[in-house]
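Q: Got a minute? One more chain.
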Amino acid sequence: AQEEAELLIQAMCYAAKADGKIDEAEKEAILGRLGELDDDEIAYLREHLEGSVDLDSFTSKVPDDMDEQVYAFSLMAIRLDTQSEAEYFGKLANGLGMNGEDCNRIHRQLDQPEIFA
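A: Always. Here it is, folded:
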């Protein structure tokens, strides 16, 4: 459970950084999903918000049964409204081995624009 939580936190942090900046709405979206955090959890979150994005390494750690959950949590962390974010989600989907149809279904469920043809 701890590893799954860490993957989901990292997924949200990476998505928030996809456009090169983390705004207050993105921080609130992440914190709102995490609830109350202890000092270690805050430090872990801060580390991932400030660190660099290594998408290949990250997606290689995601178990197959968590692909859709990781994608959805990533999408919940942001408002998809820039080209760089769309490109990030294309790379994320590719890294997770997800098809565009499944991704677009998640986008519809989360009231986000569909980006896959």
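A: The radius of gyration is 13 Å.
Q: Perfect, thanks.
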